[in-house]
Amino acid sequence: MYDVMNGVRVIEVAEHTFVPAAGMVLADWGADVIKVERAQGGDAARHMKLPGADGAINPFFEAANRGKRGIALDLTQPAGREQLYRLIDGADVFLTNLRADARQKLGIEAADLMARNPRLIYARGTGYGLRGALANDGGFDYPSAWCRAGAANGQALPGDMPPRQPGSIGDLTGGVTLAGAIAAALFRRERTGQGAVVDNALYMVGTYLMSQSLLATSIGAPTIPVQSQADSDFALANNYRTRDGRWISLCLLMDKWWPDFVAHVERPDLLEDSRFVDIRARHINSRALIAVLNDVFAGRDYADWCTRLASLEGVWAPVQNPTEVLADAQALENGFVSPVADRYMTGVSPAQFDERPVGELRMGPGFGQHTDEVLREIGIGESELMSLRKLGAVK
């Protein structure tokens, strides 16, 4: 992990992926992140399993919780809440995604905690924001960030079901942007001593990701149309199937890349074809060019194309599967994927400091793994710890 957040203590009362991902990013940056789970059952993400995955490592939980310490408190009991408050007294950041009614019931609203610690950065994630009819509704990534914000609509062909996400795009983007906002609030606090309330919402993450389409619509400009592969207006920003059924993605947006591309695909005749003589002609005759390139790419296997295109001036990419990403030298040499405690490989949070990869990473905590350790750090003695256990206030 990095050291840019060394000395920063984060207390997290959050579940699933969105806000816990912010805590994971802060832990990557060096913060001491203490995850507070419900004494009865813990984070719901612990109990979500990929179909057919029965191993000890749960991707749903690990992806947002590695690097943290974990304790279990019953916040419905005054004795459990008191331990949380004692943690807050010495904390820099508090993270939560509980709904407003739960925050009020448990006494963990911003006013409650900042009255105890005015320098606190209180960071909150919601589904749909703090105002309006949906303010207290629950949200999840796909419906809240992807569908409501227009991304699903922007990918669906007429009559087709909107596509599913390949992963938790709204949650993980929301987590890293929330972490960045927390860092900005901490910077201001270092200058002024002033705490802050920081908010993010899944719907806001979605509208940000769709901001180009929303902007275009607001001024009456056309958005990028949803088109099939063969019917695209952008032949050189399209995907092509290889002889063995794999795909190559082209993104040749610069006119100057055309001659080099033609040379790489060994079709010099295309330079003389009046239909493709310049960028305007290639746009007008895009479907004809797609038909030509479909035949070209169908003539060689995926591995052959990856080798041939390695020296291409323009931008392209192999359409890789997760196994290939984990073995990709470019990802490995840059530390974009990394081992965690020699137990699994994962993608790291998207920032690097001091021109080096993140380094050693720890797995997520077991349920209540650090309860005794953390409570001893805030002055809880053995007899009090035993009493709290008998009450069921801690696990």
Automatic annotation (TrEMBL):
InterPro entries tied to this protein: CoA-transferase_III, CoA-Trfase_fam_III, CoA-Trfase_III_dom3_sf, CoA-Trfase_III_dom_1_sf
Domain of life of the source: Bacteria
Keyword Repeat applies: no
SUPFAM superfamilies membership: CoA-transferase family III (CaiB/BaiF)
Keywords associated with the record: Transferase
GO molecular function, one term: transferase activity
Pfam families: CoA_transf_3
Matching Gene3D superfamilies: Crotonobetainyl-coa:carnitine coa-transferase, domain 1 (3.40.50.10540), formyl-coa transferase, domain 3 (3.30.1540.10)
This protein's name: CaiB/BaiF CoA-transferase family protein
Organism: Metapseudomonas resinovorans NBRC 106553
